[in-house]
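Glycosyltransferase family 1 protein structure dump, as promised
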Amino acid sequence: MKILHFALEDYSRIPGLLVREERKAGHQSYLAVLTDTIKDYGQHDYHLKLPAVGSPAIVRLREGLYRPSRKIDNRRRSGPARRWHPRSPAEKMFFSARDALWRPRVRRFLEEIDWRGFDLLVLDGGSGFLRDASFVRAFKEAGKKIICIYYGSDLRTRGIIPAADELADARFTFEFDHTLLDPGLTFLYYPYDPPKNIHPPRRAAGPIPRVGHAPTNRAAKGSERILKALHTVGQRTPLEIVLIENKPFREAMALKASCDIFIDQIGELGYGVNSLEALAMGIPAAVELMDDFDAFLQPHPFLRLRENSLENDLERIITDPEARETASREGPAWVARRHDPATVSAKILAGVTG
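structure tokens r here:
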């Protein structure tokens, strides 16, 4: 098949990884993104470079348009999945104007790559070029298959974009809590392939444990609470906090590899790619897991945290080298088994090939 992935960015390197796996399986696969990220992944084939994407002024405008209930945090949502629609005249005007600005540029891009020659369009994040999904509809009407994959706040906070989602032949998510909001979604483990040319070898553990934390979004990770708790524990137990924030990918991975323990996040959403990166290097990862997700994952190597007993949990982990060693030993094999990219990719494509 000839496959086009479309994403706002190469979220946690996952769309780019799916493209590589599809190529290994003999498909012609390409990734188009709207914007680069500070982590400098560089895995895309096409960068649309559309205006009004990610600039400080646009970010402030969008934050002003969104209600507080739509801000990203670390809590599950209740009830059915949100369905996106403009919630104010100002928001409707913003997206209508943006669609009008982008439409000729997207059309030109699709004509340049000869979109009619593609067999499958994958919407990584569930967004279809424009909010009205008119180009996705053109793919569908031309007999192409459509897949939507949800990654996190795209569904949880923004919500499903009906104009695109309703055209999908298959729908997947990499987030367990999404399936509670929309039982029609198929859950998959994040594909993860440790970049061996980037991972430096771990240093030998020193007398003072280095405890890492790497927030992309502090509210989503519960970072303020985690950092406060680490400072409190540090008054009783020697430790060194390694905060990895707003760093290019290679630098972030080097810092992570220097840690003895990695704290992923607290809240109700479970673990993320940060945990996989740590576990794959043999670094024990601590994270809060809701009871239903913990049971679903069993057996697993995660060291569990609870927000309401965070200081005690962190101190227990930091002062228990035996538990950390067990997690360190089991982590790499667990990641390779559960998050195998070839298996995940095959399941996604089976959604439209049978």
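The CA atoms of residues 267 and 275 lie 15 Å apart.
lmk if u need the other ones
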